[in-house]
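Aim 2 progress update. The chain analyzed this quarter is reproduced below.
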Amino acid sequence: MGHDKALFEKTIKNSRPGDFADAELSELVYIIARNNEDEALAEYLSRYTEWFMKLGELSLLLNEPEARWQFAIRLKEMTDKKRAGVLLEKFVNDDNEYVSRRALMELPALLPDKVEAYSTWFWPRDVYGDWQEYQRMAVLTALKEIRSPLLGEYLKRAREDGRIYLCPVRGRDFFRNTKDAGGIKTLYRHMLFLSFEYVPVNIPARWPISFSWKCQTTQSRRKLPPQGAAEQRPRVPIAVARDAAFCFTYAETLEALERAGAELCWFSPLQDPALPEQISGLYLPGGYPELYAGQLSANRSMLASVRRAVERGLPTVAECGGFLYLGQSLEDANGERWPMAGVLPGQGFRVGRLVRFGYAALTAHADSMLFRAGERLPVHEFHHWDSTANGTDFTAVKTNGRSWACGFANAHLYAGFPHLYWSGTPLPQRFVTAACRYIKEEP
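Predicted structure tokens:
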């Protein structure tokens, strides 16, 4: 790819679109489409307005949606705003769901006066089947960007819709303390995962909501929900990593585990010398271990404790940052490599951009602790680091059709970059059941 990239850049720099026939230009669009993960070619092309607009317009005539969305998200950088706006609107109307969604989220930058009109059209139409949920999330993002007075109404509609990602927390009245509480939580979810921004952690205290991705270093335990008469049974202790390095956990996931019978035992891989005693399961959620790689590596007793526990069959779930922690080594932000737990074969390394970012459907290839063969569940990936060994026990598929192998799974382990959405699925009960079985089988 390095040679192709150099040749591509030389062609763009030293010639003009008029020097080539459309058939030859089509080959360039094809190359850009194949470079959809790195996006380096589209990024380079965006420096040359004439080239960018010509190939972007040509992509409308070709069956290359992986190229079209790359053009759509960069049109705001073009100097000819009028021409760019015309092309963006064509992408908004694209037959490909992913292209149209990404284009809609770019409308605020070029055509803010058309956001509300397209939002009222996108929301009710049902032309993408299961993926309509994602179209509606794009509507919320676009309305938020222009500070539309329609946003409040559409947040209420999202709550009424109730699907997992559109309104992740169901069965609660988030509007009981403030009329916009539920809307704010839903909206900030979309800000994090749809508009490609980090959520600021200084959320005003007047909003009565706890954001589970906000780093919480307290080691105090959550109060368990009261048990009814039918639920008076011993709870299963599951260790949950929680500190500055492991701070990305959905509150709904923790509550689902508790409802399934887990007792959550917090611990810090950064500070504690070993895993909590007498645990029956281990949950290593996402976070930013790459920013604390040296400190995590220096805590050798904890790494050894985790390695021994997983190797002897302790039911374990490791998502994203937790997955990197179980690898052989992890590169920090300065390029230095640090030894990790050494349970999995991969070495974590910095990429410098989002990798396989976004929502996907995860399909299991075989039965395991959490999954059944052929089972398909929603996940998302959000990481700037990658691994030399991502696993092959699952297939992840994006809405645009792109797929990749990922994840490690067996009778006592799930580990991979995909963040699972546990609530409303069989996963919590399966994890707790595996932990109960571990208690009985341990000598």
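DSSP finds 16 helices and 15 strands in the chain. Residues 427-441 form the longest helix (15 residues). These observations will guide the mutagenesis experiments scheduled for the next reporting period.
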